[in-house]
Amino acid sequence: MAGAPGVVLTAGAVARQLGVAVPTLRSWDRRYGLGPSEHDPGRHRRYTVEDVARLRRMLALMGEGVPLAAAARVVLESRSDPEPARDGGGTGALAVGRVDRAVRGLARAATRLDVAAIRERVEERLVQRGALATWEELLMPLLGSIGESFERGADGIVEVEHAASAGILAALHGVRPAPEHGRLPALLACAPDEQHSLPLEALQAALAWRDCASRFLGARVPADVLIRSVDKLRPRNVVVWAHAARTARKVDLDAVGELCPSLLLCGPGWSGVRAAREHRSPGSLQETVNVVLESGPRLPELSQESKKARAH
């Protein structure tokens, strides 16, 4: 079907292809204008191959941790603005669009596969702006551009993605964890077979920046391991990331939900899982941080000196 000219699909068919619910597709159409473009008088609107491709690109961006609204904006801008991206990197550079100098510099380092330079630039921004702002202002634009390039099948993008992830992870791992006092505020885990762990790495750093402790079980956490970990630690919040519905469905939500007061389901994979509707699904890193912080005692804002120490 992919690439076939003139093919149109119903919302139900597209929902099955993408692993999301039909109401989710309607919400994306209503809120962001990413809906079916084919319309015949007297019939329901239909999705074209191009419509589905845009939705796939948006889901790929969300899988890299880009919030829904930002991912939709990137996809819409790529459709309506064919102007070459200003990346400052010359031939073979990663196209990052209209972004500030810091993002362009990070993109050039990623294009060169310079992991050390990527780490240095991210660490510098962490000291200057903190973990949350670093994710939203520096890393999201970069990861969004990598996702777009991956969808287009750009040459060498796999190497670029690995270098970027390695440098970013090294910088985030340099953020000093917050000490634990009393009940663990948050336990973070990727769904079974889910290898996209970078969003939760960023969440752990953002929580540490607010002096909020958390533990991260890592990628591809088996369902039984998650249940036993939650039972043992009894955290106030459990955050589970899933990029795809096939990995999200492997989580026993009932068992996990019975063991913790708050189960937060993050990532695009949950939109196609009916049982997930009974739990909260924060739409951004900022919202997830806020939910975790609001569930416990109010924490004072770190001083500038403490923030600098936390980043090293």
From TrEMBL:
Domain HTH merR-type: 8-77
Pfam families referenced in this protein's UniProt entry, alphabetically: B12-binding_2, MerR_1
Lineage, top ranks: Bacteria, Bacillati, Actinomycetota, Actinomycetes, Pseudonocardiales
GO molecular function: DNA binding; DNA-binding transcription factor activity
Keyword DNA-binding: yes
PROSITE patterns xrefs: HTH_MERR_2
Record keywords, A-Z: DNA-binding
Name of the protein: MerR-like DNA binding protein
Stored InterPro entries: Cbl-bd_cap, DNA-bd_dom_put_sf, MerR-type_HTH_dom, MerR_fam, Meth_synthase_dom
SMART domains: HTH_MERR (SM00422)
